[in-house]
Structure formats: C-alpha cells, structure tokens
Amino acid sequence: MSLAELKSQLPEYAKDLRLNLESVLGENGAPGLTQSQIAVVALASAIASRNAAFTASMAAWASEHADEDALRGARAAAAIMGMNNVYYRFLHLVENDEYATLRAGLRMNVMAKPGGSKIDFELASLAVSAINGCGSCVASHEKTLRKHEVGAQAVQSAARIAAVVHGVAVALEQAEVAGSSASRAAA
Fold this sequence. Notes:
InterPro entries: AhpD, AhpD-like, AhpD_core, CMD-like. The chain is mainly α. The chain is about 75% helix and about 0% strand.
C-alpha cells in the first residue's frame, strides 16, 4: 500500500495526522535527518505502534528510502527496545533503588551491531522508547545521540516522527474497529 493509499484510509477526524504524516516523512519535515534516517525511524515507530497492516505499509515505504541493512537496524531497535523499555521503566517506577543494583541479566548484544549505522539505531531506539513511555531509555538515547554530535533538531525530528506514526497507527486501528462494528450491526 502506498503512502497516498494509507493516508486515504485515515478518517476525517484524523486530518491533522494525514497532513503531519506527509510532512514528517518528507525530507524538509524532519530537519537534521536524511531520508534514510526518516525511513528507519518511521519503520521502528510503526513496529512499536503494533498495527500489523500499518507496519507492512510503512515497511514497503521505508524500503524505497533505506537499504536493507538500515531497515534491519530499525527492526532490531524496535525489538530490543520492546524488552528494554519494559525493564527500565520498571526500574524507574518501582521506587526501590535496590533493583538498580541487581544485574539485569538480559541479552542486549544487538546494540553493539544492530545493522545500519549506530546513529540510525540510536534514533530509532529513541523513537521507540518515546512511544513505549520509557523516560530512562529516552534520556539515555538522547544523551548518546548528542555525544555523537547529533543536533537537537534531529533528535526532535525523530520524536516528531514517532508521535505522528503512533497517532496514525491508533487512528487506523480505530477506523478498522468502527468499520467492523458497523458491519456487525448491519448483519
């Protein structure tokens, strides 16, 4: 499904999301990021948003703008952050410092060799962490990006892409639910 077809599926109440999606996925709508980085962040964000049909559409779109190695890095970021965000959010929320002294015991080898560039992986990890609501991980990835001299606008662009992609996934899911409900009521 093309980006145009995807946007056409958004309900009228999600018009802002339609416009924002077009904006943030364009090179001028994400200052500081290359088109490949935009694709990597968008794919990782779609995966984190857990809408299979939307993720498939974003994967098709992303494959036109980034190579397979970079897209593998996006998938790796979404997968490992799916685990890390839960664990590190737990450490933050439990309000007991003892847990932070314990060994996590979770394999995270993919972070050393994620596929694609380390900066792209960090951008995708930041975006997924924002979607998953892990403040500790967002702060850690932002710090790493800034240490690698990635500017504030690029970091903000990754967060904006995550926000819009997640919003679109939610709106599409709700449109599907509404359509299913209407079909059942008509039957």
